[in-house]
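Help: why these numbers?

___
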Amino acid sequence: MKTVRRYDIDWLRVIAIALLLIYHIAIVFQPWAMFVGFVRSENALEGLWVPMSMLNVWRIPILFFVSGMGLFFAMRKRNWKQLIGERTQRILIPFLFGIVAISPLHMYLFQAFYKQPLTYYPHTGHLWFLGNIFAYVLIFLPVFLLLKHRGARLKKLLEKLMGTVAGPLTVSLFFVLEAIWVKPQIYSLYAETWHGFFLGALAFFFGYLFVYIGSPFWNTLKKWKWAYLALALGLYTLRLIAYHMEAPGYLMALESTCWIFGIFGLAFQYLNRPGRLLEYLSKAAYPVYIIHMFALYLGAWLILPLNIPPFLQFVAITVFTFTTCFILYEFLIRRIGVLRPLFGLRLEKSPKEKSLQGHPTAKEAI
């Protein structure tokens, strides 16, 4: 297969991270926010959780899929030593830096909000995702190298399988089996759980395979996207009405993958085109993911004490979080050379190197 630039994958990563920010802000307005380490508003907006519960089953899995796709692009022109070195720079260094320097910042704000003694507390926080991704790179790299050099027969078999509407649904079976085997009490509790680790591993592995398989898979999703979305919507409606948002894990696994297949199909058809906005946002997405919890907690600390309606607080914290992330990225992270690698950005290239590099592609994906 001739590998072409996949701008839709870049767009998916940008959109998924933007939705992640909104999802985390919505947690602030849930009664159980403190139980997961979030600042909590005294005025709940429980109605927000209806759309968030739909988002919740695919928001993290889709990022794992996209990260696996990113590894495929990263492997095209690198041997295994170069790849591990590059992934160490892009993932492991920001992960370790975030544990000691970023996550403690929003913990300070949490402590200040609740008038607790300020204590330095290095922890993974929301950056657990990066630790998982780096582990998956090390675990699956031998398999991916084998596929790259000796996988021609398997690729032909997968092309034939994924050329049918049922093909992608066979992938869903692996996620269904994971849910049956691990039995997560809460399906969407991915952070630092075995369920999250195994689900992420599956998504990362299949994300690589989906780009490896190529056109037969993506054309199937493009053709049947509305069918996958209809099935996902039906399962979500059933979960909402019959199970009060938390259905059995095997149903939520099927719902999750159907949402993702439908979204992949839509993106492949409508978003696979370059643009200056994408060029900027695709570079900003990773640093924004790293710093967004600090911006969110700072916004909550400043805005929640204000005597305004809770929905306006939600809107205000959302605007504050996105604006603060933009300011930190635009005026500090991308402009100060020493900060760039700490937030997963490459060092600035010379003008000649930039002209040769061209537009960023999905190979930039974490």
